[in-house]
């Protein structure tokens, strides 16, 4: 049975993540928001600490690289690396989402590797910082429409195509690239490949200027006759095993993005409560909402929404740790948390007036940063579509 309190064994670890967020991420937040594309050097030391925790076993799941599932059928209730990852990501994103996304070796590509790699691949790619490249100029939400090709030639796959909006694509060591083995076979032929950064034929074309998460680099990457060893195909090359293999990554990564949203929204709520108190508006948990000032009532309803997002995120991660199918819950958590974070961060700007809108506080930044959390790893609309399909028992062909 699920117990939604933070497990005792993770408490010290979560406190540590919070301390790092308060002392290293928050103080550098504005600086790297203003200095877009400048490398946040402070993160190198932090990443080394996280690696150390991982190696000692105390911090498994300190970031995106920890989300490996146990095999189905394992005995007992498990609080594992998916749960510890979402808990630590919530804390880190209370500090700064863009900086969390820039943490070496904790990229979304690392979760893809952790989710679907064989044990041999997991060992081979240990310590590699991996970005995730699905989106193309003509393929975003419709990820079954991948145009990048992977053609087997001897012991290599030869990749051709273009990937856009690759988070950490400029700074990473490797990119997990979705490509099709045969366009005529549709979604079943889509596989993911680990492409190391120095591979000939792979070029980082440019970095994007963005609304939010400006500390995180976002790259366009071109592949021209880029040869990748056959053994870098993640999971199975078997076309009969189909699209489900690569899609399985999302069951682990969507709760992580939901956790980012939960962390960012909590940062906004806490600062807003303090600013309201300074302005003489106190949120009273012992009085009915209709007897409180409008700002306090708005605050309380935002907190209730936040709590729902938080609990749904824990549920989705806990199910992954316990080898339960969680595609539905992962999408519910991502939809609720992404939408809630957008709503909360913007309403906090509204509630705090000129203070919220100006650069004196980070509230305006959080409202910009949170937008992406309702877009990448599947937009709000796509999550709702997936949820509807699952609840109604419809296929993707029946409900588009
Ligand atoms: C800052 C940033 C970082 C990113 N990082 C990465 C990354 O690391 N790796 C990566 O692969 N991608 C990344 N992306 C890309 C992101 O995942 C896509 O932007 C997203 O999947 C949406 O795709 P699209 O932009 O092509 O929009 P489209 O798919 O063209 O959608 C446009 C709008 O239409 C809606 N829509 C589309 N289809 C439907 C439908 N069937 N029903 C209802 N509404 C629909 C969408 O919800 C959206 O609102 C990133 C994007 C940004 C902005």
From TrEMBL:
Residues 240-392 form the Acyl-CoA dehydrogenase/oxidase C-terminal domain. Residues 131-226 form the Acyl-CoA oxidase/dehydrogenase middle domain. Pfam families: Acyl-CoA_dh_1, Acyl-CoA_dh_M. The keyword Flavoprotein applies. GO terms for molecular function: acyl-CoA dehydrogenase activity; flavin adenine dinucleotide binding. Belongs to the acyl-CoA dehydrogenase family. This is Acyl-CoA dehydrogenase. It comes from Kribbella rubisoli.
